[in-house]
Amino acid sequence: MTDAASVSAAAASVVRRSAARLIALLAAPTRDIPLAEDVLADAVERALLRWPVDGVPDNPEAWLLTVARNRQRDLLGGAARTRSAPLDEESVMHTIDDALEGIDAIPDKRLELLYVCAHPAIDPGIRTPLMLQTVLGVDAAVIARAFAVPESAMAQRLVRAKRRIKLAGIPFVVPTKRDLAGRTSAVLEAVYGAYALDSTESGELAFEALHLAMTTATLLPDDAEAAGLAALIALSLARVDARVVSGEYVPLDGQDTALWSRPLIETGERMLTHAFALGRPGRFQLEAAIQSAHDSRIDGGVVDVRALVDLHAALVAVQPTLGSRVAHAAAVGRADGASAGLDVLEAMAPAAERFQPYWATKAHLLEAIGAPESSAAYARAIELCDDPPARRHLERRRAALETAGPD
């Protein structure tokens, strides 16, 4: 008999790692995402009852999949018996069995589900949140904060979108090349969102995003932005082991390059070279080029700060988001002095009241010029920070200011 705490931890680990994959696989033959979520939840409940008695199975993911599949078959069979027009139950069950032949099929089904969520029948405004939650496993509350929407409103919109997939009969397939262009940008946006929203020390969700980005780039070898996104994520994830050391956040410029992953950097550089060779520079390629400039330190190189300013300026021209504008201000501050960076930063002040990177950058630049307002800026950045290691780093910076006092 296994203790309940160990079983709960094992179940939580499987769900965290594999829930989105399993839902994608279970939903493929029926187009019913809520049903897939329900039967997986039933399987997890069953696991919490059985695993303490029987022990955690050697392949817990396959165990959950089998139990969920059987529950799905029962529910579909019941639906068939209660319909006035008979459902072709045997055909549906064969389809389920074909789709569930092996765990190895799951990554392809996730990619299919990404394209399902990007179907023209789905409201463009909910496509990215739907992909983030259903395919990539991002919590609805996190998505709501990222999109500045109340959690209850986001939950309702997600439920409606999932219902729409079933009612519209949207097929669970990667669309033909003719239809890919209209959906790929939304898919790339969701994959980028998963990478950007991952605040875990391990970068687990970001590595899932890298897998999907690489798969999409392979599927679409002539799509420059697909290759650019794969390059961006690889080049950034190359530094994940150096970002937090012994539980403490390490700023990019202070990271030990010996901890960076050379294979990931080489992969990113290869994808970036391929993207630029296609001759259509875009947002993700520019972001990847920025990461490449930082990664040049791995061989003892010096970051070209002027090139960084130019790349950030180009990114703002293509994608003038708060994030790109704040990053540009930080680059200007590094190249031309903190005061110049603050001038760029203050131009966006009204719109950035709740944007944490704005306050963190402002605090750093104010500290650099010795402005007393830096302490208040750090306090605001700390208040808005969801990443514990980064928050502790900001708290130490603010405490150091308070200890130093006025000159």
Automatic annotation (TrEMBL):
Indicate the segments annotated as coiled coil, or none if absent.
none
The GO annotation for biological process reads: DNA-templated transcription initiation
**What's this protein's name?**
RNA polymerase subunit sigma-70
An example Gene Ontology molecular-function term: DNA-binding transcription factor activity
Q: Which residues form the DUF6596 domain?
A: 183-275
Q: Which domain of life is it from?
A: Bacteria
Q: Which organism is it from?
A: Orlajensenia flava
- Pfam families from the UniProt entry: DUF6596 (PF20239)
